[in-house]
Every structure is written in C-alpha cells, then in structure tokens.
C-alpha cells in the first residue's frame, strides 16, 4: 500500500522509512519528558507506574509482578504515545505502519516463550504445549495466528483512524475533522490498553502451572 | 459496456466489490459487539459491585470481535490500492 514514497535515505544500502525517523523522535520525546519529570515532579512517574501496575495486575495473577513490569510497561507507554502522536501536526504515528506493529508482536511472541521457559524449564514448557497430545498442532497454530492478529489489529485500527481523518480533512478542513480526531485518540488509548492486556494474558497463560489436574489424576490412580 | 478495456472493467468490478464487502463484512461483527455490550451492561446493572472485571472482559471481547472488521478493511484497502490481479494482468 505504498500510496506515497516512504523511503527517506539509505544506510549501508538498507532503506530507512519515515516511520523509523518518527520512532526516533518519539524515543527522544519520551526520554526528555521522563528525565524532566524525574527532576521536577517524581509523583507523576509514580502515578503512571501505579496505573501500569493496575492494568497488568488485573490480568496476570502471580505473586510477584516485578519481572513482567519492564516489558509490559514499556510496551504500554510505547504504544500509547505512538498511537496518540499523530495528533501533533507534522508527526505521523509509527504504529500506522505494519512493520512497527509486527516488530512489537514479535517482541511479545519471544517474551511469552522466554517467561514460559524461565518459569517451567524447557522440557516442562514444551510438555505444556501438548497437554492432550492431539492439540499440539492447534496450539502451534494459535501461537502464530495470535501474533498475526496482534499485528493487524493495532495496524488496522491506527491506520484506519488516520485515513478517516485524512479523508474528512480533504473534504471539509474546518471543525468537522475534530470529532474524528477525538475518536481516533480514544481508539488509540484503547488499543494500547488492549495490546498490554492481551500480552499479559498470553504471558499469564504461558506461566500458569497446571499441576492441579495432574495431582487429581495421581490421587485417583492411588485410590484405584 | 462492450467499449471498456479490461483495465477499466477490472477497476469498476473492484469498486463494486469493495463497497459490497465492506458493508456486508462490518455488519456481523458490529452486531456481535453490540450483543457483548448488552450482556455486559445487563450484568453491571444487576451487580454494580462486579462492574470492574465485567468492563475489562467486555473491552477485551469487543476488541477481539473488532479484529474481523479490521481484516475486512485491510482486504478492501489492498483491493483498492494494491490489487495483485491488476498489477499482474493489466500492468497496474
């Protein structure tokens, strides 16, 4: 869907798109704001962290949430700011490009397996894939299709919001696009929330220990 | 109709199909999202103390339903802007 030319310049023969430039701008923005906030008002940072803790803690039911905060909190902040960045004139959302969302989905994919293997060990994690053996292909398919759906959901939502604003803006440029922009802002915040919630759900399903049914089976056989 | 060359005919067919697909393809997921919202709101009205988990579940379920809408939108956008058949058979 290359309606306009996205390529800006080359580094070592590798084309760099404008999305990458805007991602760098966004990273600089986040770093500056965080450093300023840490000096001027540390309470804001604490409030933000509490909110992220609340979102993740509502889904992920483990005793210790601290190992999961860096990945999921960074994901939430990144997606939130990337989705709402196109409200500033001249900037575009990095998540309106399918490459960015695919990279985010791949990060979630690998971190799910990392946390699962760290919690259960390699053999235990592989065994949890084929709990009944005939479900193994479905489980494998599910892991790939959930990555694809994470990619396309975020990309489609943000890109369709931007597209609708652009179409309405080209028809009537005054006042009328404002409700559309409000809708795209709300949808961006909601998508960040959903992305974080789904990532925590997947991690939660990877790290859950399914020892209860095994114990039941053992007790049954011992009774018999 | 007989005077049209194949490229124009393909463009007309693409536009008609896109309109048809986006109207049909967005109706069903939207109805289902409405059903999810109805059930969740009924549950919230009956038990206001369980509104928090219900709202969270409703939002997740609605986002999962919404994915089908997005797939339809992507298919239509590919049909309009990057139609593989057009570029293969009619040279763009």
The gist of it:
The complex is a heterodimer of chains A (224) and B (92). Chain A is mostly helical.
Detailed description of the structure:
- The complex is a heterodimer of chains A (224) and B (92).
- Chain A has helices at residues 18-40, 42-57, 69-84, 98-120, 122-129, 136-171, 177-207, 211-223; strands at residues 7-11, 14-17.
- Chain A starts with 6 loop residues before the first strand and ends with a helix.
- With 224 residues, chain A is mainly alpha-helical.
- Chain A is built from 8 helices and 2 strands, in the order E-E-H-H-H-H-H-H-H-H.
- A two-stranded antiparallel ribbon of chain A has the order 1-2.
- In chain A, a hairpin with a 2-residue loop joins strand 1 (7-11) and strand 2 (14-17).
- Mean pLDDT of chain A is 84; it is low at 215-224.
- Helices cover 74% and strands 4% of the residues of chain A.
- Chain A has one domain (7-210).
- With 92 residues, chain B is mostly helical.
- Chain B has one domain: F1FO ATP Synthase.
- Chain B is 85% helix and 0% strand.
- Chain B has helices at residues 6-46, 51-81, 84-89.
- In chain B, helix 1 (6-46) runs antiparallel to helix 2 (51-81).
- Chain B is rod-shaped.
- The two termini of chain B are 21 Å apart.
